[in-house]
Amino acid sequence: MGHQLEWTKSVNWTEQALKRLSTDNAVLITVQATQGSVPRGPGTHMLAFAQGEEGTVGGGHLEFQALAHARLLLAGKTDQTTLRQVLGPSLGQCCGGAVALGFERVSAADLSRLRVQLSPQRTPLALFGGGHVGKALVRTLAPLPFAVRWIDSRDEIFPPDVPEGVECEHSNPVQAAVTDLAPGSRVLVMSFSHAEDLDIVVACLKRLREKADLPFVGLIGSQTKWATFRHRLEDRGFSAEEIARITCPIGVPGIAGKEPEVIAVAVAAQLLQTL
To answer: Hey, which bits of 107-173 come out as E strands?
Structure first.
């Protein structure tokens, strides 16, 4: 998992960019506005240094020209801080839209502000279960826009090299953690036992009954497992409408592989659809 962790950190361009900015001046390039079909949306950033860059505003000739302009600004050869590019044949990009870019000289003095400005907005996600699929999911989700809270009743289950930004939590009983999940949390249930899974699902349904603030609750398992769970949930007094709030099986349709890494990709894609 060590190599995977190194890869995850490399995806987090902000951390690397700010570290470099502490010694090298740069130009912050920002997508300020867009029209039509474009590769990246407003609020996308990248940093251009005299040599090299971190992040991306969409690649291709758009980014090539943005970097060239940024380096002119960095060298004091222009004072123009905005640029509008039409993504047509002249740029060799046929998206058909237009992008307005902003350029700002930045230095180590701007580190505190940029650390906040460039921090990605992350959606809270509670992952119950530290097994093989849970571990694969944490690795897959690390570079994606989720703040992962990884919960298990077994304290020793978490690996020592957890990706940055993942919060590990020991909770016994495990379902007790549902009470203080952040509003808007996506929830994935894949503990080591069906009994724990059921307890967590029940806790989620009770919270949904009270607050309706968990937009997605997914349970790993087969159609057979879900049929058994539905009967048990009915016996506990949950209505068909309430039970329908649980997604089981999880993962986008059409991916049949059972390997943990394959399941992780399918589930991550499904979670992205909820944003």
So the answer is: 123-128, 146-152, 167-170
Of the chain, the end-to-end C-alpha distance in Å amounts to: 28
pLDDT digits (tens, 9 = 90+) for 173-188: 999 999 999 999 999 9
Pairing of strands 53-55, 45-49: antiparallel
Residue 132: C-alpha distances to residues 94, 191, 208 (Å): 43, 10, 28
Counting Cα atoms < 13 Å in the Cβ hemisphere of 259 gives: 4
Of 124, 129, 120, 177, nearest in space to 152 by CA:
129
Tens of pLDDT, residues 46-72: 999 999 999 999 888 899 999 999 999
Indicate yes or no: pTM above 0.90.
no
Inter-CA distances, 69 with 26, 76, 192, 245, 268, Å: 12, 11, 54, 50, 37
Query: Which residue stretches of 75-188 are H helix?
Result: 111-117, 132-141
Instruction: Look up residue 239 and give its amino acid.
Output: S
239 token code pair: 């209505």
